[in-house]
Structure formats: structure tokens, C-alpha cells
Amino acid sequence: MLQKTKKCLLLVVLLANITHEVKAFTSNTRYGYDAYPMYSTLDPHEFMFRKERQWLKGLCQDLKYQDEQEQLSREDCTQRVRFAISPFAQFSDRGRNIHNDEEYLGDLGGRWNMIALLFGNTPQGKNLPMSLETAKDNLFGQNIGVVSNPELYIDPQRQFGFFSVPLKYRKYGVRFEFDVRLARDIGFCLQFGFACICQRLEDICRYYDICSGVSCIGQEPCKSTDITKADVICETPNCSHRSYMLPIDLTECSNTNPLPSAVPANSGITQLENTDVQFYLMNQLHAIAKDLGLDICNFNKGSVEDVRFNLYWRHAIEINEDADKQHWAHFLFIPFLEACFTAGVADCLDTSVMLSAPFGNNGHHSIGVNGGFLVDFTETVELGFEAGVTHFFSKSFSCYRVPNSIHQSGIYPFTTSVTVCPGLNCHLSLKLASFHFLSKLSTYFQYIMVMHKDDQICLCKPDPAFKPCVLERHSCWKTHLANIGFNYDISPNVTLGFLWQAPLSQKRAVRASTVMASINFAY
Fold first, then answer.
1. Are 42 and 488 in contact (CB under 8 A)?
2. How many CA atoms lie within 13 Å of 155's alpha carbon, on the beta-carbon side?
3. Domain map of the chain by residue range?
4. How does pLDDT run along the chain (523 residues), one tens digit per residue?
5. How far are the Cα atoms of 17, 84, 116, 157, 193 from residue 161, in angstroms, in the given order?
6. Nearest one of 205, 242, 241, 246 to 227, comparing CA atoms
7. Cβ-contact 378, 387 below 8 angstroms
8. Cis bond upstream, residue 27 (ω within 30)
9. Cβ burial 138-173 (10 Å sphere, 16+ → b, else e)
10. How far is it, in rounded angstroms, from Cα 277 to Cα 288?
11. Which residues contact 45 (CB under 8 A, 6 or more apart)?
12. Beta strands of 53-166 (E only): which ranges?
């Protein structure tokens, strides 16, 4: 009993002293959706090696629930096959931009700038639809061609002429993991799954005022019917709301002065009035979207996920095996190396479906390698370190939305064919685990740092009107996560588990939480 108590106290102390300030670089999903997918609740460094490790530490009898007098061989404590079934759910309604400011999910790529739809040169063989031509003629003058000084018409507060898009993201599914031992220190793991993603506009009044950012306090602050169509009426006395439609027109949140407000009226530069922008652009959102071929409806779709093939090597080295146990702890030092190929078979993202979310690598195949080591103490805890890098292969897309002005954000008027080469992904993780720290209950804590570098987007047919650099400079992201897992052995070969993947911090990434249950069979 005293030994178990010491083990628990040591686990708590080590968890409390793990730092989250590790700087490193890891999965190609837009804005870090499901950046580090888990396929079972087991310790990610099990490697079909747990019982064998217990044998090396002289604890295999306890693991096999055999009489302590019975001596089992290493072969008796060798696992050969493991299979896991893991239903999961992932959810989010917020994220962080590159400046670490909280944003709605729909705003991570930039709020929808409606005025900027009228900027830039028209690509070859394309024309603005009638709705935008009408807006351009009435806001800037008849047949003006390219709008001059477009930077003067961009509100730095991103309110005048902007839509904000509050989204609620939900992902449900089931994942499978099949692990087989090929040789003494070599194994193969196959991971795959199926998921359904729902992303819809949400009632933002229940959180905070989009204009002022003031927190709302109170019970049932808003009343609404169908929030995708009807006004939302907010009655909380602690913050003042307008009657919002979704997406949210932020033009009324800005001051009533015309833009550019700093330019004298006799300067010859066109002044944009609030009422004109409201009438010709903001109130015409659905008509403009239809003319551009954009789907701005709620997103709900199911798909298979990417399939991962993992080949790994690990080897245990006993330290202090014959040393004086009163002074030196007996432990295992276990280096490991893993290679992974991911087949990008999940459905690709359609850039014309505005509220869509990615299922995986967006059709890009990838190869990756990671390595690290474990320090497994006989009577206490296990420490782990892992680092890796992933390369994604390029893929071509037709009808890909690309801005034709550097001032456009969120919504783009034209499509073209491009080849996308995703940036390098890197990851680093630290882990603390304890096997059977309470009876047959095991737990682990893993800190993960994931970074995605800038993508490269090349036009299949060169056209100076398109500006793919705008998309490239908004393609990097970084996220910090924590995996907290609990697994209970209900028999020598069956384990039930629960996992919570908690978000810690992000930059231009989704703040998503994942919960997973799992049943694991090992023989």
C-alpha cells in the first residue's frame, strides 16, 4: 500500500512540474483541425511491447495474473496482435489568429471582405458577375476598370464592409487500429477510420458582443428561431446587441464616417458611404454568392479518413540490472524509430463551399519519420520524448479559389487551376505515464507541439491577376495539445480506455477538444 501511495505522489509531482514552454514544430489540416489524430486511448508508445517490458522488469507474473512462484518465459509475455475500436467526438467554436487573438472559426482565414471583391485585375477569360459590376459602378463610378488606392477602402478594424462568420464545428466518427509484431523488435500498425463533420453558423449572442467584445452574463440572453435566417434578439442587460443576421454584417459596428475618413472630400478620391456599401454589397450577400458559385449553407458530410501505414522499431536496454538496488534504480532505456506513409483518401476540401472543414490531408499523400526514447522505471513512472517530421506530396486542383487582390480575405470571386505543395509539418512531444498505478488502471499525460510551415501554391496557367501569395502567407499554423489517457485492464487481453485531447494554445489554429473511448484487444 505504501508503495502504491509513493507511486501516486510521484506521478502528481512530475505532472505538476512538466513545462509547456517547449518550442518545436507536426499534420496537414487547414488551421490545425485534428492536428494530431489519435486512433486509440492506449499509450502512444505501447509498440506491442508492454508485457515484454514487464518481463524484463521482473513483473510479468503480476501482469499475467499468474502465481508469483511461476516463472514465465519471455515468449510467454510477448504480444503478437492488437486491435482497437475507438469512437470519438471533436468539437470547437473558437480559434486563435496569428496575433493570438480569439476568433470565430469562420474568421481564421480572415473576415469576409465584401468591398475587396471589387478590387484587382480581372483574370483572363473571366468577368465580374452582374451583382458585383453593379456594386462597383455605384460605389466607384461607371467603367473605372481597376480601383485605384484600394488600401484606403480597407477598415483596419475589419468592420466596415466585413462579415464575421461564427461557426460551430463538430466531428464524430470511429477509428480502428491494427497492430502486428513482425519480428523481435519490429512491428507494423495500420490506422483508418470514418467520420462525419458538421459545421454550421451559431448564435453568437450567447457568448459575447461581436462589436465590442463585452462578455454577456445572464440566463438565456438571446431568443431566436432559425438562426440561419431569422434575426436574433438579445435581451441581456449586461451587454448591448443589435439584431443580427448570420453571417454578421459588421458595417453597423463601425463609425458612421465614410471611408476613407482621413481623406478630404475635395481630394478627388471616392468616398464610400455606409448606406451604399450596405445596399449594394452587404444586403446582396446571397445573390453575390449565387453569382460567384459559392455555397454558404451549413456543412454536413461524412467521409472515410486518411489511411496510415506505420512501420516501427524499438529495443529495450536494461540499465542497473545487476546494480545495488538500494542505491540505483533499475530501469529500461527504450529508443524507437517509426516511419509512416499516409494515403490521402479522405474527401478533399471544396474551396467554393464556404463552411466546409477538412477530413484529413486534403488528398495529399505524405511520408513521415519520427523517433525518440522512453525511460521506463521498474517501480514508478515512464518518461518519454518524441520528435518527427512529415513531408506532403503536391496535388493539383481545378476550380480552386484564389484571390485577385492582396486586400481580399475570406471570400474570393474567381477560381483557377493550381498545384498545392503543403509545407513541412513537424512535431515534438513529452510524455509521463504510469502503468497499473492503481490496481489495473494505467494513465499517461502527453504534451504535443505541432507546427505547419507555409504552403506553396503555383498556378497551372500563369495569370498575373491571381495572387496565390495571399493564401500562402496565411497557410502556416501552430498548436499545443495535451493528451490525457486512462486505460483499465478488464482481462489479460482486453482493455477499456478513455482519452481527452485538450487544446492548450494556438496560432492561426482551431481550439478543438477531442474525447475518445476505446476497447483494445491484445494477444
1. no
2. 27
3. 2-114+161-203+296-522
4. 444 444 444 443 343 333 333 333 345 678 889 999 999 999 999 888 888 888 887 776 544 444 444 567 777 777 889 999 999 999 998 999 888 888 899 999 899 999 999 999 999 999 999 999 999 999 998 888 899 889 989 988 888 999 999 999 999 999 999 999 999 899 999 999 999 999 999 866 544 456 655 444 443 444 433 333 333 333 333 334 445 578 888 887 776 666 665 555 566 677 888 889 999 999 999 999 999 999 999 999 999 999 999 999 999 998 887 766 567 888 999 999 999 999 999 999 999 999 999 898 999 999 999 999 999 998 789 999 999 999 999 999 999 999 999 999 999 999 999 999 999 999 999 999 999 988 899 999 999 999 999 999 999 999 999 999 999 999 999 999 999 999 999 998 999 999 999 999 999 999 999 999 999 999 8
5. 48, 50, 9, 11, 42
6. 246
7. no
8. yes
9. ebbeeeeeebeebebbbbeebbbbbbbbbbbbbbeb
10. 13
11. 336, 372, 374, 384, 386, 431, 433
12. 81-92, 94-96, 102-104, 112-113, 162-164
- Kindly state the cell numbers that stand for 345: 483518401
In three-state secondary structure terms, 245 is: coil
Strands (E), 160-225: 162-164, 167-181, 186-201, 222-223
How many Å separate Cα 420 from the centre of its chain? 19
Model-level pTM? 0.84
Nearest in space to 207 (alpha carbons), one of 195, 218, 196, 216? 216
Nearest to 101 by CA among 240, 213, 19, 244: 213
Query: For the domain bounded by 2-114+161-203+296-522, which CATH number is listed?
Result: 2.40.160.40
3-state secondary structure of 291: helix
Element (H, E) at 337: strand 331-343
d(C-alpha 121, C-alpha 282), whole Å? 22
460 neighbors 419 (Cβ within 8 angstroms): yes
Query: Shortest CA distance to 105 belongs to which of 523, 515, 503?
Result: 503
